[in-house]
Amino acid sequence: MRHTVLCLIVAFLAAVACFVLLPMIGLLLLRIFTPGVFDDDSLVWISIFVGPPLLALLVGFSFLTGLVAFLISMARLPDRGWRSAQTSAILLTFAATIATAGAIAWPYYAEPPEAGPLQTGLPSLHLARTLKAAGNRSGTWRLSWSADSERLAAYSGAGIVTWSPDGKYQREIPVYRNSVTTDVLRYLSGHSLLITSPVAEVNSAEARDNLSDVAFSVLDAETGKVLRNIPGPHLGGGGPKNNATDLAVSPDERFVVVICGPAEPQINVYSTDGWKQVATVDFRGGEKGGALDPRGLVFSLDGKTLAVMQGLNGRIKFFEAGSWVSAGSLLTYPEPSLPMQEVGAATLAYSPDGTMIAVGASRGGSWWTYPNGRVAWPGSGVFKATFPSDPLRVFRVSDGRLVASLGEFSGGLLRHGLVWSPNGNYLAFQDAVGVIRFWNPFQPNLSVAVARKGMILPPDEMLLSKDGSQLAADFTDGVKVFDVVLPR
After folding, report:
1. How many angstroms from the chain centroid is the CA of residue 100?
2. 203-255 pLDDT tens trace
3. 376 and 236, same structural domain?
4. Which of 14, 50, 75, 477 is geometrically suited to a Cys-Cys bond with 69, CB 3.0 to 4.6 A?
5. Which of 199, 136, 201, 196 is nearest to 170 (CA)?
6. Alpha carbon of 392 to those of 171, 346, 437, 461, 484: distances in Å?
7. Residue 141 and residue 77 share a domain
8. Contact 330, 305 (CB under 8 A)
């Protein structure tokens, strides 16, 4: 028994040595024969395109090395006592290997220190359950929570999965499409309808080809049947001029406002009674330029105002719902910036009473960086502020006054990564390194990290239930549902 255990340890050490030394030798040879490869992002692109097969090859070769080492050890390694020098050397080497691996991994799993005093009196999160798609390990994205709080839905693999928040109900809906566009997903009519990116009723080339000019589809959420495919504004222009990139549903569900086509964006208003286009929102106001392109939109909770987020400098334009005429604008990041450091608004959220609007920038905040300026793993290097230092800002809608702003976190918020609590007491958001944070804009001090997702692709989402008692978020292993625990 002792001899077999020691042989297994020798095999493990041989496999680890192979797994570590082979890449080091490869990188050294790459540096010798390909000067300058470490000076740019070449290694990043190499890892993206050939990383997985190289990793598989490395794992296979390391396993083979361990197997050979085990067989040789069984045949040649003398069987001596536990107190022998040979056994001590093997066990000490094994312990040192484990300790070194732990020391290297610790900064990646330890929570990095915060930059200052944190707010108090905020809720915390308690994981209730993880909702997974059967047989799927690729994660979920573009999350939607029905207005009646009865259903959650997300894209997963080649389809859409719907769940009840308690995990007792689950259904997988296969969807057929030519592109991988999954920009929109929204419940309607309680949880009976789903608005999705363009999908076909049947899996045929002809049906999929007919989606090129479709803006979005309307599905029966229970059966998955495609009820309607709504055409975009530029027939014959294909997906880049027609596919929906974002949408907002009015609180009374009379209107669905859609940004159609990233190539030539147009904001169309559709009536849910017959799904006819009833208006086009003039978001440019006679101006021209790609910097004015809409990036996102949201209704105030009273349904009276539509806010449209535009391009650079974070301009928000307001429109009266129904007439769709301009009702003013707000410049959220007016500070001058250096070339190639222009700031755009990435996400926005109305306060429950409609008096304030929160906006998150596409960059900025504070990042852990190495001396050479490259981004470091959280907790390593130096925590350094970038422009804008306060990427999350809250404004009063009536006069555009800045109410509060927040920095000291990694900026670059996701389009659907900012929500206001139903009681209006705090904002929940996800920073650029996948940390979910709570922040009360009416109190001093910094936001509080309540969960850590990690940086995952495709872009993920986070939502609060209608009553604010639960939070759901996309993770690599599925949708995690948390109970929001109020402070005592």
Report:
1. 32
2. 888 888 888 899 999 999 999 999 999 999 988 888 889 999 999 999 999 99
3. yes
4. 14
5. 136
6. 37, 10, 12, 17, 22
7. no
8. no
Instruction: Identify the residue with better confidence: 368 or 120.
Output: 120
Residue 102, domain extent: 2-109
Interior angle at CA 427, CA 411 and CA 191, nearest 5: 110
Which has the minimum average pLDDT: 72-76, 196-200, 312-316, 478-482? 312-316
Who contacts 337 (Cβ-Cβ below 8 Å, separation ≥6)? 343, 387
Q: Which residues neighbour 409 within 8 Å (Cβ) at sequence distance 6 or greater?
A: 365, 366, 391, 392, 431, 435, 437, 446, 447
Model confidence at 390, in pLDDT bands (50, 70, 90)? very high
Domain membership of residue 364 (yes or no) is: yes
172 pairs with which residues across the strands? Answer: 161
- Looking up tokens 């990095």 gives 112
- Burial state string for 398-409 with b = 16 or more CB within 10 A and e = fewer than 16: eeeeeebbbbbb
Q: Do 28 and 171 lie in a common domain?
A: no
- Helix (H) and strand (E) counts in the chain: 4, 30
Q: How far apart are CA 403 and CA 416, in angstroms?
A: 22
Q: What is the pLDDT of residues 30-66, one digit of tens each?
A: 777 776 655 554 555 566 556 667 888 888 889 999 8
Same domain as 348, residue 206: yes
- Asked if residue 210 lies in contact with residue 166, where contact means CB atoms within 8 angstroms, the answer is no
The 10s digit of each residue's pLDDT in 442-469 is 999 999 999 988 765 555 689 999 999 9
pLDDT at 149 over 60: yes
Domain with residue 151: its CATH number is 2.130.10.10
pLDDT tens for each residue of 268-282: 999 999 999 999 999
Q: Are residues 424 and 479 in the same domain?
A: yes
The band of 475, judged by pLDDT with boundaries at 50, 70 and 90, is confident
Which residue type, as a one-letter code, is found at position 420?
W
0.85 cut: is pTM over it? Answer: no
Judge whether 316 and 327 are in contact, CB under 8 Å.
Answer: no
**Count of domains observed in the chain:** 2
H-helix or E-strand spanning residue 4? helix 2-33
